[in-house]
Structures are given as structure tokens and as C-alpha cells.
Amino acid sequence: MSFQAHYLSSLKRHQAIFETLDKHAQDLVTLYQRCAESVQNGGKLIFCGNGGSAADSQHLAAEFMVRYKAERAPIRAIALTTDTSILTAHSNDYSFDSVFARQVQGLADAKDIVIGLSTSGNSPNVNLALKAANKLGAYSVAFTGRDGGEVKDIAAQSIIISCDETARIQEAHLFMGHWLCEAFDHTLEQKASH
Ligand SMILES: O=C(CO)[C@@H](O)[C@H](O)[C@H](O)[C@H](O)COP(=O)(O)O
């Protein structure tokens, strides 16, 4: 396949992703409402994932903590993928599988939302983090892909991007995270105009 044909075929996959995201519009509104309620009650948004999804976790936590578009107070958010001392000590002394669950146990409470990003839904460390969230009474959310994997039976809410290409699923997850930021900004703007 030529580069141009390959480019066009990747672009066409976005059409399928658009349809999946369209199907999930109401799920995202529900998620926004849960997040807004959590933040209003002193809760926080906790993200985790591996590889590209680790980067997306950090990206999204930064958007909430610092700024998306609107000037606003920080929204409490953290990614569990950034502290190399915690990540290496826990993986070395215990197990990589429980590296996020340990941090959920230490940082989360029932007011929080724990969002695991996993394109396969089968990453043990993400799945154990969401199980730990469930145990604490926090709201567990999976941004996942393919057939949803194991995580769809663990998370209280799963948003599944029905596509089998990792990169396209990650792009959809980032879109969903950005949309959540936009929903927070939009609500602030609405309040300011009243
Ligand atoms: O970003 C990519 C490929 O696009 C990879 O780094 C990818 O994130 C890694 O293979 C992850 O370990 C995959 O984990 P998951 O999405 O299945 O939970």
C-alpha cells in the first residue's frame, strides 16, 4: 500500500470511531455528571494506564490540574504513572501488576473517580487499580477498546471504542478526556453568564 493510501485508510478508521463516539455521547454526559459531583464534594480524578495510555493519563491530569481553555481554579486530578520512585520500588519489591492498585489504596477514597485507560482492557495493573477503587467505594471507569476485555466486567462504567487498532483507540480516549475538560469549562461559562 502506498503511503498516501495508508494515510487515507487510517483516516477512514476515524469515521468508524466517530460513529462509536457518537453512540457513547450520553455515557460521556453521565461520566461528566459523576466527575462534576465528585469534584464538587471534594473528590478527585485519578488516571492510570500503560505506554501511550500512561502518557494520556498524564496529559489529562494536567489539563484538569492546570488549565484546558477557561481560566478557573484547579480541578483535583492526578496520574498514577509519574513517580518513578513509587513505580520502581513497588514493581521491584512487590509486583508491577499491583503498582496502580497500591496507589489507589493510598490516595483514593469513596468520593473519587478512578479512570483506567486500556486499549485491550486486559492490563492487570489497570484492572487491579479499578478493583481497588471498587473496594473503596470510589467510582471506577474504564476507557477501553476492542471487545472491552476483562475490564468491562470490573469497572462501574466502561466506554468501549469498538476498534482493533491501538493508536485509533488511544486517539478516541484522548478525545473523550478532552471533551470532559470542555464540559467542565462549559459549565463554568454557563454559571458565569447567569
Ligand atoms: O502506545 C502504544 C502503541 O500505540 C503502546 O505503548 C501501548 O500503549 C502499550 O503496548 C500498552 O502496554 C498497551 O496496554 P493496553 O492499552 O492494552 O492496556
From TrEMBL:
Look up the EC number in the record and give it: 5.3.1.28
Q: Where does the UniProt annotation place the signal sequence?
A: none
Q: Where is the SIS domain?
A: 35-194
Q: What residue ranges carry the coiled-coil annotation?
A: none
Q: Which Gene3D superfamilies match?
A: Glucose-6-phosphate isomerase like protein, domain 1
Q: What keywords is this UniProt entry annotated with? A: Isomerase
Instruction: Give the Gene Ontology MF terms in alphabetical order.
Output: carbohydrate derivative binding; isomerase activity
Q: Does the keyword Transmembrane helix apply?
A: no
Question: PROSITE patterns under this entry?
Answer: SIS
One GO BP annotation here? carbohydrate derivative metabolic process
The protein's name: D-sedoheptulose 7-phosphate isomerase
Native organism: Marinagarivorans cellulosilyticus
